[in-house]
Design brief:
There is one protein chain. The protein is 26% helix and 24% strand. The chain has four helices and eleven strands; from the N terminus they run αββββββαββββααβ. The strands form three sheets. The chain has a six-stranded antiparallel beta sheet. The longest helix is centred in the N-terminal third of the chain and has 55 residues. It starts with 12 loop residues before the first helix and ends in a 10-residue tail after the last strand.
């Protein structure tokens, strides 16, 4: 029997199955590419958000350090090193030297359980809790920066997890904290020996950036040589013992600052539900002890993070202290 001329050929069952298999493969590849692109986007977004916060924090720290001041002047000291303005001054001047009611300090051991270094100073930042003082842009404030490891329900800082969420898993992280005393609450004048303790007790600590795993500050002399990381402008002076200690009532002319931050996604993976500090490939409190090892310590930090495949960013700069009037002779 003759086949009608208008009859069209159809796909065989095998051809249909092959087409479905190819289409399924293309769909699977497309979904996989979409998933990979989504993961890359989320990872990039996590990196950018973490590093942007750290970059902004670093810019704030370096800007304010450049504004730090002591308002140094010259005054008489008695044989015990007490300035003329001290209530216990004996009235017998024996030396003439630098004096200041303000303070600058940096280095390890300034804050309980701090990680790495801390820095505390006064600067004309104009911050006040009083509405009648808010227009005075040059008011002095005590400011401090340091890193701590802990959870977001500890109460160590403002802006932690709200009380109604406290029952959930706490987030343990390294955090860069900022402490500030408003102008009307500055205690450095009334209690210069305890000014940092009072600032920590009465100031307001806030988180500037999370996942900051290293923070170091190195004071620099005019010739570029570093001393100990510990610097305290409030050191004492026996008035008959020659020149004043060179850091007494005097700001360092330059400060080198390093800040190292890792990304949030990696930090969350390393931390899990543990309350212990994660393994970063280096011990944060075992670096930046010797100023001569400044560059080597940074390499040690980077090598540890690289070996652990931990994404990180290093922020580093030298800050000229504009109000420093360095004098190595008196």
């Amino acid at each position: 029997m003759a086949i009608p001329k208008n009859r069209r050929a159809a796909f065989s069952l095998l051809e249909v199955l092959v087409a479905i298999a190819v289409l399924s493969l293309i769909l699977a590849l497309t979904l996989d590419m979409t998933s990979q692109a989504s993961k890359v986007w989320r990872r990039g977004k996590s990196h950018e958000e973490t590093f942007r916060a750290a970059r902004d924090a670093f810019a704030t720290i370096t800007r304010e350090l450049s504004q730090s001041t002591l308002n140094t002047y010259y005054d008489y000291f008695d044989a015990s090193g007490r300035p003329a303005g001290d209530p216990s001054y004996d009235g017998n001047p024996t030396r003439y030297g630098r004096q200041s009611e303000l303070r600058f300090a940096c280095g390890p051991g300034l804050v309980p359980a701090q990680i790495g270094h801390a820095v505390f100073f006064q600067a004309p930042l104009g911050h006040s809790d009083s509405s009648s003082l808010t227009k005075l842009a040059s008011l002095l404030n005590t400011r401090g920066y340091y890193v701590k490891f802990g959870n977001d329900t500890s109460g160590d800082f403002i802006g932690g997890k709200p009380a109604f969420l406290a029952a959930g898993h706490p987030r343990f992280r390294y955090r860069l904290l900022s402490i500030e005393q408003p102008s009307e609450k500055m205690s450095v004048y009334a209690s210069p020996s305890n000014w940092i303790t009072n600032a920590l007790s009465n100031g307001s600590a806030r988180v500037l950036a999370e996942n900051v795993v290293a923070f170091a500050v190195r004071p620099m002399w005019p010739d570029g040589a570093s001393t100990s990381y510990s610097y305290d402008s409030g050191v004492s002076w026996a008035g008959n013992s020659g020149n004043q200690p060179r850091e007494m009532n005097q700001l360092p002319p330059r400060l080198e600052v390093i800040l190292v931050v890792i990304d949030e996604a990696t930090s969350a993976r390393l931390q899990g539900n543990s309350s212990a500090a994660p393994d970063l490939g280096f011990e944060p409190n075992e670096v930046f002890h010797d100023p001569a090892e400044w560059d080597n310590d940074l390499k040690k930090v980077e090598r540890g993070l690289q070996d652990g495949r931990i994404p990180y960013r290093v922020f580093r700069t030298t800050v000229p202290v504009g109000t420093s009037l360095w004098n190595s002779q008196t």
